[in-house]
Amino acid sequence: QQQVKQSPQSLIVQKGGISIINCAYENTAFDYFPWYQQFPGKGPALLIAIRPDVSEKKEGRFTISFNKSAKQFSLHIMDSQPGDSATYFCAASAKYGGSQGNLIFGKGTKLSVKP
Amino acid sequence: NAGVTQTPKFRVLKTGQSMTLLCAQDMNHEYMYWYRQDPGMGLRLIHYSVGEGTTAKGEVPDGYNVSRLKKQNFLLGLESAAPSQTSVYFCASSYLWDETQYFGPGTRLLVL
Which of B40, B92, B100 is opposite residue A107, by nearest beta carbon? Predict the structure, then answer.
């Protein structure tokens, strides 16, 4: 119930292509869905986040699509660049309903963008 | 403004030894967290704190203790280290539960 399932585990994309990472959840109480980006040897950093009152949020080349009925959300990276090569984590939390506001992370997707 | 800092950066322990990891934040955040990151497992919450003097268990609290005597500091203790505690430990802080969590650079711990 508390899990967030992330796929794929790894992804190779050509420069200029679109990277898509998907996450699914079961707990309908989740109401905050952030994506974190982590470069090797560094701590994760917030990339973009969405709440369930909107179906899409865009910041530059990064877009979150959210499907409340399917309990799925995804990260799209347009015009992927080698500098986007990193590990991406989706997460979810709910103020009420089990997770006590704490983030539940997916297991991560290692993205490699080839020049 | 240093953000979130962690001490030490790297440590090697023998089984049964104890140690304390220190996390400090200068953003006046109420919430602080300790995570561990293992290959293929994502980030798992060990303990967290919603304010000075408070602590609570996360997903994987066994073998760890924490203290938050000052608002800016969150300490993670291992009383008797085990090889299963070999991991990278991250501290994070946030102003509210659904606000951005800011992560430190991590502590790499090897238990032999």
Answer: B40
